[in-house]
Fold this sequence. Notes:
It is a single chain. Helix content is 54%, strand content 0%. The chain is mainly α.
Amino acid sequence: AGKEIPRNKAIAYGLICSIYGIGKPSAFKICQDAAVDPSKRASELSEDEELRLVEEVGKWTLENPLRRMNKANCALLLDIKHRRGTRMAAGMPVNGQRTKTHRKTAKKLNPSRV
Length: 114
């Protein structure tokens, strides 16, 4: 993904911390598919293991393409005037949360996402 993984962390947690779009389940899945021990440190990897990891991570949509995709999805919801899109644009809660008393907090925590 063009990013450096911290050398002193376990591979799975290094992937989680350094690459946008990889969470805990996907990091362990990548390690499993690449046949690499997830608890192994990045500095202990062999060349072959590194290449397998790079190849496996290359199959995923990560970093800027993923950010663009998420932004495009939000913009599409706004274009078609979907309730979720308009609420995202206003910075309001989207999934039916309470707004009678918590609207101000919601607007602070959810800036416009479109």
